[in-house]
């Protein structure tokens, strides 16, 4: 009996020793943080703040420089923590990287995740990607802190999932010229909030000059209408009838992103600026709609 008790005591001592070693190793392991960027929110909010527009075609964003600035900011805020990586979430047609997204993906410590873009250039599936990564990393104790740059209320579930596994989620935002650009339920759910101002983002944004001037011969309304129909045919071939049905629900109004794409492409074909040419802009939209409705 005494021998059994002695053996049991030895096993308990051995177990306690192993636990102490494990706790000592855990104590020496630095905390880890990651940065999660909803690029759709970032481009829209930064564009509105610095360039006065949410249209990506109207300004250039130095993504590499901005990512470096965000990493430096995280290094200061999470002083005793190491960076896992930056997750960059964006949308793309058929989830195929654009040239800009590919250059971002090639940056060190950056992982690009792509959702889809619908006919209205709206991101689809990005929020679920953010939730999956946040939850998985928190569950496996890969991160202790997450800096989330976004504003959509749909991100609340991602925050809750990560917090459920013990991670702290810190919401970073872009200063809004007026009001707020982040949903209240998201602000309520996170562990901390931080907003970066104009001076932080201004070095990384530059407006694009207008590509064409209205200085050449003015095209006729029929010429512009015909170009609108050409672009509509190309749009339909690229996106298909399902996207067409979705777009037709909003007739006679075009979503802002589609209208902007139509304008830019038309100016390229015409080699003439349609800015401020209300009658020609109407003719362009008329030609676009007439072709699409004839195909339905």
Report what the structure shows:
The protein has helices at residues 2-28, 39-51, 63-77, 99-105, 126-139, 156-164, 184-189, 198-201, 221-248, 256-270, 278-295, and strands at 31-38, 59-61, 81-92, 110-117, 123-124, 145-149, 168-174, 192-196, 205-207. The chain is an alpha/beta fold and 296 residues long. The strands form two sheets. It has a seven-stranded mixed beta sheet with strand order 5-4-3-1-6-7-8, with helices on both faces. Helix 4 (99-105) links the parallel strand 3 (81-92) and strand 4. The longest helix has 28 residues, at 221-248. It starts with a helix and ends with a helix.
Any descriptors?
296 residues, alpha/beta, seven-stranded mixed beta sheet, 11 helices
SSE topology sketch:
Elements: H1 2-28, E1 31-38, H2 39-51, E2 59-61, H3 63-77, E3 81-92, H4 99-105, E4 110-117, E5 123-124, H5 126-139, E6 145-149, H6 156-164, E7 168-174, H7 184-189, E8 192-196, H8 198-201, E9 205-207, H9 221-248, H10 256-270, H11 278-295
Parallel strand pairs: 1-3, 1-6, 3-4, 6-7, 7-8
Antiparallel strand pairs: 2-9, 4-5
Helix pairs in contact: 5-6, 9-10, 9-11, 10-11
